[in-house]
Amino acid sequence: MSAVTHADLPARDGDIRLSDADRAQGMRLLNEHVAAGCLTSEEFGDRAVQLEQARTRAELLVPFHDLPQPRPRFGDVVPAQRGTPPPTALPAAEPTRPTPHLRYLITAVGAPCAIVGAITGLAAAASEPSLLVLATLVVLGLYLVLLVAGHLSAR
């Protein structure tokens, strides 16, 4: 009688190692749960890491333990169609507008300069009316710079 080795024992279903298709199906299903509002993006990130580190079918099901259907099913994975991008580790992020640092800088520097220039111009205009025109042009010029910079930083 020969001895039975570990390799001779049948694997339990949960101990079967995952394929790339199994992981892709799991990632697609996690994305569906995010789209349905069942997971936040932070929860998705944590579960996506668990999914990518999973080695067996049982480990792949752990990120889905408290989620409704759909859940991964093994043996009926539909292959991705041609031209379909592979699943990503995170859902597509909404485009965000960059923080308008340039606008803040120009406002912080330009506004005080405009105020000081206007006060100085008005004080000097009492004795010289042509300086009032110059002070007005300086203030309008700074305002135009602020408008252009605000438009450029909003892109």
What does this structure look like?
This protein has 155 residues and is mostly helical. It has five helices and no strands. α1 runs antiparallel to α2 (41-53) and α4 runs antiparallel to α5. The longest helix has 25 residues, at 101-125. The chain is rod-shaped and about 95 Å long. The model is unreliable at 4-9 (pLDDT under 50).
Characteristic terms for this protein:
single chain, 155 residues, mainly alpha
pLDDT < 50 runs, ≥5 residues: 4-9
Work out the number of β strands. 0
Helix content: 40-55%
What is the N-to-C order of secondary-structure elements (H for helix, E for strand)? HHHHH
Strand content: under 5%
Shape: rod-shaped
**Main sheet specs:** none
Alpha carbon gyration radius: 32 Å
pLDDT averaged over residues: 74
- Distance linking N and C termini: 79 Å
Helix count, DSSP H or I runs of 4 or more residues: 5
Please give the structural blueprint.
Layout: H1 20-35, H2 41-53, H3 57-61, H4 101-125, H5 129-153
Give a quick rundown of the structure.
The chain is an all-alpha fold and 155 residues long.
